[in-house]
Amino acid sequence: MVDPGRAFGTGAHPTTRACLELLARLPRGSLLDAGCGSGVLAAAAARLGFAPVYAFDSDPVAVAAARQTARRNGLPVEVARADIREDALPAVDTVVANIELRTVEALLARVAARAAITSGYRAHETPAVPGWRRVERVELEGWAADALAK
Hints:
With 150 residues, the protein is an alpha/beta fold.
């Protein structure tokens, strides 16, 4: 159950669906939903068995929505307000980021993770960050999501 309120993310957008498709194929471990919006990806990750799950966003409305999503679904997600470009980030096995391309690239340049699921950009765009390679891509309705590995 997700009520995004004024935060981004009901789970219906092609970028979210593509992220979920890729996320379901990954080995379970710790996960950071960076720029979490309503927390739908963090909630799905927790439901899939990822743990611990962190959800960070700089928007207080998004943080409140993500907390409510986790609480409504009885899921153990640690939600915090943080700027993913500047604040300390936890070291995790996987980072998921459904945000605009330049922010994805800035995040990947600094996050300590072995795998990433990224989206929020069009199919003709691709994150370019040294040290990361694309493993898989899903395209839906002109949008793309990538599974990346270090």
